[in-house]
Amino acid sequence: MLLASLHPVFVTLLLCYLITNNMSLIDLLSKGIFWDTDPATLDPEKNIYYIIPRVVDYGTMEDVQQIEDYYGPERMLRVLIEAPSLHKKTISFYAWKYGLPVTDFRAYKKQQEWKTWP
Fold first, then answer.
1. pTM across the whole model
2. From start to end of 1-102, where are the E strands?
3. CA angle 72, 65, 83 (to 5 degrees)
4. DSSP per position, 3-46
């Protein structure tokens, strides 16, 4: 389900339902994204710097849209720029989407520093 395609009132009601039933954003995302972590231990606010990069690298388009709806594009972009590790395709896509040079992304700079064997 894409939250962006729903009426804003319905999105608000859905988020209220999730909160009152002790569910979170993590419950809406594909289960395989957090294969190495217990999703029940993830807090969408405390673990934002873990959740956003993981979802944009390994999630579906629906997952990405859901976290963008939840966090908002400005907050999401700030996290992506500061993320220490992102796939090259992720960096390229978000640099294109927001009209930024890839060099603005910390993950890109770190990839450039990696040395290869001679």
1. 0.76
2. none
3. 65
4. GGGS-HHHHHHHHHHHHHTT--HHHHS-GGGGTTS-GGG--TTT
Can you state the percent helix, strand and coil of the chain, rounding each to 5? 70, 0, 30
What total number of domains does the chain contain?
1
Cα angle value 64/67/43 (rounded, 5°): 130
Looking at residue 48, its pLDDT comes to: 94
Give residue 91's domain range: 3-113
- Give the alpha-carbon dihedral of 114, 102, 61, 5, to 10 degrees: 160
Q: 59-98, pLDDT tens digit by residue?
A: 999 999 989 988 999 999 999 999 999 999 999 999 999 9
118 within a domain of the structure (yes/no): no
